[in-house]
Amino acid sequence: MSHEGLARAKQVMTDAGVNPTAIEVFSHYYGELEAGKTGVIREDSIRPLTDPPTLESADVDEETAREALARTVIIKLNGGLGTSMGMARAKSLLPVREGKSFLDIVVQQVLAARERYGVRLPLLLMDSFNTQADTLAALERYPDLPVEDLPLDFLQSQEPKLRTDDLAPVEWPADPHLEWCPPGHGDLYPSLLSSGILEALLDKGFRYATVSNGDNLGAAPDARLAGWFASSGAPYAAEVCRRTAMDRKGGHLAIRVEDDQLILRDTAQTAEEEMDFFTDEHRHPFFHTNNLWLDLQRLHDVLTERDGVLGLPLIRNVKTVDPKDPSSPEVYQVESAMGAAVEVFEGAQAIAVPRTRFLPVKTTNELMLLRSDVYDLREDGTLQMQVDKAPVVSLDSAHFKKIGDFEQRVPGDVPSLRDATALTVEGDWTFGDRVVVQGAVTLPDEGEARRVEDGTVLRG
Question: Which domain holds residue 390?
């Protein structure tokens, strides 16, 4: 059935107008899935990355940094809808600070870096079919953002979900949209090639790209990092940060024993019985930030040589076709991670960067923190932490997980957290304005909705 399944999958992709390069990449992963590969990386096949070079110790003069940034493009992943937070449009359009969205602040960072260093510095978004229209409409307020005739975005691909029983494309007439899924952010590479963007950037003299998640406002343009990467001669580099107990679920880099090659291991690539190794922040002391640096010419050479199939490790995710209906057919979503390209390029490097380079917002916990007075939004769009250590925020997911519920319960000022070490909210609480949290505070579940009145000082 699997041979027929691949033929059907390729046909539905062709009928949907999916690019031939993307179909070839999907066919590659289909073959791995058919062969029984799971993408699992065993602990005994790797050894920890323990001593990467640090940005702190990098010797980069100002002119080298500026020249490197002048040949760099900023790429942001912008395909997510923020569905885990109850959103139905591009997550990057969510207001974060002073009425500005993630996207507004990213644009602010890019424009400020252009002015400071006198460089072109294009911003390029990898959108999905779900995020493109809203995002481009939001960017219309920035007429100076485009660089020459370069577009502001390109589209990631889409692929059919496959039934786990016969590897055929799933059919779900109740909602045909659910028959499709994105191929993971590893699709960055073939989409850059097939869209023509990669060649256009090279033709205009751009040699480097820095890539990061659209919700990570810490990954601002950095001339010193650009200078380090250009001077290193590496084809590829990954930014890593030292792990804490809060980072146990994040992917990490490791060194493959058989050939000393840097590789990425994510949660989905770890055997269940080996999760203790994966989550041990002492055994694997650095986590992968998903901030990457690419040599565009080297990337173009490898992609051209391999007909667009970079050969990133398979990530096989088992889901139901309707995520909200556990009785719906079980499917495989075939994905790859863009950070896994670290093992494709000989000479790839990792560099340890300050924690300030990693400020993602995956839940309303981080959103509250980012909106609070723990951070200050500077004129160049960077966020500067106002305390030595950020407090830990933990909001009751039953009442705060979805953005609508969160904003209903925090309708005005976010509580002051500058003097807090932790805020734990259990149960249904609403916050008034000018609330101040000091020390470690827990609001217990009272069994009914409660309110923290305006001007309250909560002391731990």
Answer: 364-459
Task: Examine the domain organization and report whether 171 and 282 are in the same domain.
Answer: yes
Domain final position from 357, 385, 405: 357
Q: How many domains does the chain have?
A: 2
Question: 250: which DSSP letter?
Answer: S
Average pLDDT by stretches of 10, the chain with 460 residues: 84 94 93 87 95 94 97 95 83 94 98 98 94 96 97 95 95 94 92 96 98 96 98 97 83 93 90 93 93 98 92 89 92 92 93 95 94 96 94 96 96 96 97 98 96 96
**161 flagged as catalytic:** no
CATH of the domain at 413: 2.160.10.10
Q: Is the dihedral of CA 201, 335, 355, 363 positive or negative?
A: positive
- Catalytic residue, chosen from 204, 319, 362, 401, is 362
Beta-carbon contacts of 355 under 8 Å, excluding residues fewer than 6 positions away, are 218, 241, 242
Q: The domain spanning residue 8 has which CATH number?
A: 3.90.550.10
Please tell me the pTM assigned to this model: 0.93
Do 423 and 385 share a domain, yes or no? yes
Do 305 and 440 reside in the same domain of the chain? no
Reported as type and span, the H/E element at residue 287 is strand 286-295
As given in the structure block, the two tokens for residue 429 are 């609480």
- Reported residue count of the chain is 460
CA 93 to each of CA 65, 88, 132, 233, 306: distance values in angstroms, whole numbers, following the listed order: 31, 11, 11, 36, 36
Handedness of CA 253, 257, 262, 266 (dihedral sign): negative
